[in-house]
Write a structure and sequence with these properties.
α2 runs antiparallel to α3. The protein is globular, with a radius of gyration of 24 Å. It has a seven-stranded antiparallel β-sheet. By secondary structure, the protein is an alpha+beta fold. The longest helix has 32 residues. The relative contact order is 0.13.
Length: 223
């Protein structure tokens, strides 16, 4: 009888050991899996730091669009009903290295100071917005936004401390873009507030801005 009871006890212990080994493992995988929408499964590959710098320095590109496209891998595309913005990235270069190498290769019309881990270069048809990612350590994003995209989607508050309102007005071909856009953003709460890797690029409301759907965990909705 004691032997039988012992067998039962051993069986119970074995059951719980197996349950903890396999059951808890499944739970852990389930927990990590539930966060896949918050993690890029794989960032695009890129050349080495020296190769990137060499490409930029020796490029024959005559536009910033071509230079950025041939130097950095495309990470994402942000579309709206009024304009397009392409997001490139690097883990090989720092923010200062990106901004300095691009501005030395093709001189911008205006270049901001570096503030809050971002810097903006303005070219005839594009804004190049270089930022350190808040979501992925070591990732620098290079947003190539058309003038149309900035004019119709960006919150002017994003540029506070980078450019004066009158300069933005001039670069966007308007006498009052800054004030009109600020009023609109305050009223609707639906203005683009800079790129975020997981969809947090609106200052409020999703509106008609959307990210590409072909990246794992890429943006699809606003804040």
């Amino acid at each position: 009888m004691k032997d039988f009871a012992g067998i039962i006890v051993v069986g119970i212990i074995a059951f719980f050991l197996l349950f903890n080994m396999f059951g808890s493992g499944d739970d852990q995988r389930g927990m990590s899996g539930s966060y896949t929408e918050d993690t890029y499964e794989e960032l695009p590959s890129e050349p080495s730091r020296s190769e990137i710098l060499n490409t930029i320095e020796n490029s024959d590109a005559n536009s910033i669009e071509s230079l950025v496209k041939e130097s950095f891998p495309l990470l994402d595309t942000v579309r709206s009903d009024q304009g397009l913005s392409r997001i490139y990235m690097t883990k090989e270069l720092t923010l200062p290295e990106v901004a300095d190498s691009l501005s030395e290769a093709i001189k911008p019309e205006e270049i901001s100071e570096r503030q809050e881990e971002k810097q903006v270069l303005i070219y005839p048809d594009h804004f190049v917005i270089v930022q350190e990612s808040e979501e992925e350590a070591g990732v620098v994003t290079i947003e190539l936004a058309s003038d149309e995209f900035v004019r119709n989607n960006y919150s002017p508050g994003f540029f506070n401390g980078l450019f004066a309102g009158y300069l933005l007005n001039r670069m966007l071909g308007s006498n009052d873009w800054y004030d009109r856009r600020r009023a609109n953003c305050q009223q609707t709460g639906n203005c683009y507030g800079g790129y975020g890797m997981y969809g947090n690029y609106n200052s409020g409301g999703s509106g008609s801005i959307r990210g590409s759907s072909n990246r794992g965990g890429g943006p699809g909705t606003g804040k």
